[in-house]
Amino acid sequence: MAYNENLANRIRERFADLPNVEEKTMMGGLTFMYNGKMCVGIIGDELMCRIDPELHEDAVEKPGARTMDFTNRPMKGYVMIDDTGMTQQKDFDYWIGLSLDFNSRAKASKKKK
């Protein structure tokens, strides 16, 4: 699956001054790891944000946002945002900010052996 390269460049620009950022292809798109933990990603044309699960219900009420349901399993703490939810820079920054804020508290995935 292809991902939106313009969105990828917006994320790269926003993450440019951060240390420990790594890009990985996964879930049919592109994922940005921060400090070894999944932070944001792109699936198709949508931004995927890993946020505090406690903020999930309020987050999905925002324009253009919905619960990530990869493989038809809703995932609390993971939100998909379409174009309408991040057209303005302040909206894009809001979603990236939520993800970066949660990253310091998020658990890292277990490493495969």
Structural descriptors:
113 residues; 6-stranded antiparallel beta sheet; Aspartate Aminotransferase, domain 1; 6 strands; alpha+beta; single chain
Largest sheet, spatial ordering of strands: 1-2-3-4-6-5
End-to-end distance, in Å?
A: 27 Å
What is the number of domains? 1
Share in β-strands:
25-35%
Indicate the CATH architecture. Alpha-Beta Complex
Largest sheet: 6 strands, antiparallel
Write the CATH fold name: Aspartate Aminotransferase, domain 1
Count of alpha and pi helical runs: 3
Derived from helix and strand composition plus strand pairing, the structural class reads alpha+beta
**Inertia-based shape:** globular
Total strands: the figure is: 6
What would you say this structure looks like, in words?
This protein has helices spanning 5-15, 56-59, 89-103, and strands at residues 21-26, 29-34, 37-43, 46-50, 65-68, 75-81. The protein is an alpha+beta fold and 113 residues long. Strands 1-2-3-4-6-5 form a six-stranded antiparallel beta sheet, covered by helices on one side. Strand 2 (29-34) and strand 3 form a beta hairpin. The radius of gyration is 13 Å and the shape is globular.
